[in-house]
Structures are given as structure tokens and as C-alpha cells.
Design brief:
This protein has 248 residues and is of the alpha/beta class. It has a single domain, classed as Ribonuclease Z/Hydroxyacylglutathione hydrolase-like (Metallo-beta-lactamase, Chain A, 4-Layer Sandwich), CATH 3.60.15.10. The protein has six helices and 14 strands. It is globular.
Amino acid sequence: MGIGYLEKCALRSKLQDKTGARSARDRHSLPHLHGEGTMIDTILKNLEWLGHDAFRLTAGGKTIYFDPFQLTGTHAAADYILVTHSHFDHCSPDDIGKIMQESTVIITGADCAAKLSGRRQTVKPGDTFTGESITIEAVRAYNTNKDFHPRKNNWLGFIVTVAGVRIYHAGDTDHIPEMADIQADIALLPVSGTYVMTAVEAAEAALDINPAVAVPMHFGSIVGKQTDAELFAEKLANKIRVHIPTKK
């Protein structure tokens, strides 16, 4: 990757406890809490669930994929592909190949990047990638009471800021302390249990994050059922708006 490209899309490191953080005082001053949700709704309409943890976001003139897996049919070419970690159902070279173009930038950790080809930008928790019309923050994702996603692996969640809206894709994670400092308008949270937090734990995480909209993921494929998503919504009723996605 040439120096000119790195100058255009600068990568800067920040301390993890600064990433996405906000004070308790300004935590409830986000626009969505004052009813200004038009752009959030627009982003939500352009956020397509592709199953499991995979999403496609079209915003700011860019097409962004999160953890593409088991893609079928025809899909728009990617400007950015964000991969949270190296497990096969997240870091899938075959699926990434279906949406790659020469200019696609893959943003992921070092272990997944080693499995892929193309323009790869390796990040770790606390890093921020700035591209044209988009900012991508890498944050922590890990298990607290199981060993499938150890904290020491530095695996990732992402906060994407585009068109003034912050979208948090939590990756494969439990309810972790760092979530209390996440600032997000839309939060995509795993709900299946087994490898990640349960629906009840995910609801508790959503209350920590306090987004305008919480979206369950990590169900309907490999592990997790529709009922997990529904339980998540039930636990957040009259507290946080929940959008249960339908696979595209």
C-alpha cells in the first residue's frame, strides 16, 4: 500500500478508554434523545442484514460490509469490508472475494488479514481509520465467562460514523465494561448465547450503550433463534427502540 494512500486514509492510534467515550454528563445529550432521528432512520433503512453477523451499509456514497458470510445472489461491490475476527463465519475469504473490487479496503485484525489478499488495513482496538466521508473506530470485543473470544486476541468491534450517524457493530462479544463508554446511535448486538452474550445480557448491554436503535444479530445461522431476537426486544420494551432485521 503506497504512502499516498496512507496519507489519504490516515490511521491514528488512540487509547482504548478514549474510544467512543462520552462522560455521564453528556451521555444523554445525543440528538436522538431529543427526537431528531431522521438521519438515523435513513441510515437504518440502508442497513441490510445478510444473516448471522453480516450487514451491508450504503451511506455517504460508500458501500460498507461487516463480516460478510454465506453471501448468495448478486451483491454490490464493496468500498470497505470490516471483519471483526478470524473465525470462519466472520473472516470468510470466499465471501469477501464475491464483493471485492480493486479499490476495496479491508479493515481487520492481523490474524484475519493474513488469510486475505488485496488492500488490507490492519487495526487493533483503539485505532481509528479515516477515509472519504467515513470514520471507522476499532473497539474491543471479547468473552468474559467463556473462552471462544479471549481478550488477549485483540479482536474487534467497529464504530462507523457516516452522515453524522454512529453505527456500532459489536462483533462476537459478551457484555463488557467498555460498552459503557460506547457512543452510538445504532447498536448491532449479538444475542444468541453459547459463543456470545445471551439475549438478556445483550439487553443489559444495550441499556449501557443507550442507542437510539438496538438491532439484534448472531441468530438464525449456526447458533441462535428468532426467539432470541424477540426476547431481546421484549427486555428493552419501553426503554430502547429495537429493530429486528429481516434477512435480505
